[in-house]
From TrEMBL:
The lineage of its organism: Bacteria, Pseudomonadati, Pseudomonadota, Alphaproteobacteria, Hyphomicrobiales. This is Dipeptide epimerase. Its EC number is 5.1.1.-. Binds 1 Mg(2+) ion per subunit. Gene3D superfamilies: Enolase-like C-terminal domain, Enolase-like, N-terminal domain. NCBIfam families: racemase_DgcA. Pfam families: MR_MLE_C, MR_MLE_N. The chain crosses the membrane at residues 266-289.
């Protein structure tokens, strides 16, 4: 049977504006890879990671460069060796998982020996003034887990305090997106502990986070930009308490599963996160996250329009994907 591959660029509007310490955006730009064989088609979606120099055009070109290998029947393990971690490999890898499920009739959750359940996902509050973030928190105070984007220089403690006052019953994850400094990290962590924060994500820039080995961790600290693949984990011991696994960083579900299992073996907590994308990007991550300590798969909740069919969200609970979507 002849295997084919196609690549598409798509854009989905965000409901409002999504802001982190590195900037703002009003749409989710994604790349979708479709691999077809024998009357079946598998899809994978990725979001180019601008933090690492990825662009829509560059990711499309990287996928196109693999055309002959994909059409020649490359498998997922061979793909790991043939491409670096990143968004392009993620799209191909997830498309291969989906194609395999469609062609064999064996769902991905069955292949992974899972009995999937609905998961409680965080809901993200964009970075803004303390007042605007309090307003976001108040609107979502019924959600059990909120992810709070901070790292905007001065005023982070005021932002955290304002969110806590507006959503007193919610558990909080703080995501600084590398925005704190050696001079501010200890005081900010102490304030986070005082305000009952459950987790602090990537407070310092990747590669400039050595001070985390020498200061107290009154709140568990989670690596995000500092971890991509399983090989990164040994260097993070003593710096971080948990790792955030994202398919676009790991380069697909195949590597992400290896990363999760190795993280558990080494004693790290596990968070499964996402870029702002559609339900197609979240679907494999929902299966990856079945035993995670923290789940942050709210991408579709931040969009004004999702794919149809999409994942089923009920409040902050997200169900596993239906076969018509992925897997």
């Amino acid at each position: 049977m002849v295997r084919g591959i196609s690549v598409d660029k798509e854009s989905f509007p965000i409901a409002g504006t999504f802001t982190i310490s590195r900037g703002s955006k009003t749409e989710a730009e994604v790349v979708t890879c479709t691999i077809s064989e024998g009357g079946h088609a598998g899809r994978g979606e990725c979001v180019p990671y601008r933090r690492y120099g990825e662009t829509l055009e560059g990711v499309v070109a990287a996928i196109e460069a693999m055309r002959s290998a994909v059409e020649g029947g490359i498998d997922r393990d061979e793909l790991l060796a043939a491409m670096p971690a990143g968004a392009a490999r993620n799209a191909i890898d997830c498309a291969l998982w989906d194609l395999e499920a469609k062609a064999t009739g064996v769902a991905v959750f069955e292949r992974l020996r899972l009995a999937p359940r609905a998961l409680e996902t965080a809901y993200t509050l964009s970075l803004g003034s303390a007042e605007s973030m309090a307003a976001q928190a108040r609107e979502n105070a019924a959600r059990p887990l909120l992810k709070v984007k901070i790292g905007g220089g001065d005023g982070d403690i005021e932002r955290i305090r304002a969110v806590r006052q507006a959503a007193p019953a919610s558990r909080l994850i703080l995501d600084a997106n590398e925005g704190w400094t050696d001079e501010t990290v200890a005081a900010n962590l102490a304030a986070a502990a005082e305000l009952g924060v459950a987790l602090v994500e990537q407070p310092l820039p990747a590669g400039r986070d050595g001070i985390l080995a020498t200061i107290a961790h009154p709140v568990p600290i989670c690596a995000d930009e500092s971890v991509h693949a399983a090989k990164d984990l040994p260097a993070l011991k003593g710096l971080y308490d948990a790792v955030n696994i994202k398919l676009d960083k790991a380069g697909g579900l195949t590597e992400a599963l290896k990363l999760r299992d190795e993280a558990r073996r080494l004693g790290f907590g596990v968070m499964v996160g996402c870029m702002v994308g559609t339900s197609l990007a979240m679907a494999p991550a929902v299966l990856l996250a079945q035993d995670a300590d923290f789940v942050d798969l709210d991408g579709p909740l931040l969009l004004a329009r999702d794919r149809v069919p999409g994942l089923a969200y009920k409040g902050s609970l997200v169900s596993s994907p239906e076969r018509g979507l992925w897997g």
